[in-house]
Specification:
With about 200 residues, the chain is mostly helical. It has one domain (about 1-70, about 80-185). It is built from 5 helices and 2 strands. It has a two-stranded antiparallel sheet with strand order 1-2. Helix 3 (about 50-70) runs antiparallel to helix 4 and helix 4 (about 85-115) runs antiparallel to helix 5 (about 150-185). The longest helix is centred in the C-terminal third of the chain and has 36 residues, at about 150-185.
Length: about 200
């Protein structure tokens, strides 16, 4: 497969993943779909905005750069074409990988620590001591009085962020290698091929 076509496919995969991360992070800000608890009762991992910044914006940039690298380059088509855009995509992909790693790390920590919730008139990280064991014991999830359904809400969204960001790490890594090959070898497409 040509480096340009590969870059385009990878970019078109990274863009929806980054949008998924942005939406998931936005939903983490409103437990149970309500803004009632947003001000003081969200965990640190939610406020770190890893899905919005890391898995979202920091991956959206390399996704767009990869799609552009898959188009006709500034030097034309053929073996010497598209090297400038591929070089930009190398740096963008490394940047996106860092963002995806940040998102993955925060998401896994968010799953391990659990949400802040109210139990017996006390707001705290009540699941922190379980070291993530609460994830496999869903009977514990109902002990949180407020926000309602906060544990499944957080588990679902942080799991989605962890999965999406792990895919982003792989795709950014592949694009990093692909773009590096594209810088050295150029694009194998002939003149006259469409973007």
């Amino acid at each position: 497969m040509c480096t340009g076509k590969c870059a385009r496919c990878l970019g078109l995969s990274l863009i929806p993943l980054s949008l998924i991360c942005i939406v998931a992070n936005a939903l983490l800000l409103v437990p149970d779909g309500k803004t009632t608890w947003t001000k003081n009762h969200l965990s640190l991992q939610v406020w770190l905005m890893a899905g919005f910044i890391g898995g979202g914006l920091m991956v959206l940039c390399p996704g767009i750069a990869a799609v552009r690298a898959g188009g006709k380059g500034c030097c034309g088509a053929g073996c010497c074409g598209n090297r400038c855009r591929m070089l930009r995509s190398v740096f963008s992909s490394a940047f996106g990988m860092l963002g995806a790693i940040y998102c993955f790390s925060v998401s896994v920590t968010g799953l391990q620590v659990g949400p802040i919730c109210l139990i017996n008139d006390k707001w705290d990280y009540h699941f922190r001591e379980t070291s993530g064991a609460y994830l496999s014991n869903d009977t514990l999830w109902d002990v949180c009085e407020e926000p309602p359904h906060v544990v499944p809400w957080n588990v679902t969204l942080f799991s989605l962020l962890a999965i999406a960001s792990s895919l982003e790490i792989v795709l950014c890594g592949v694009q990093l290698v692909n773009a590096s090959i594209g810088v050295v070898c150029g694009d194998c497409r002939k003149k006259g091929t469409s973007h």
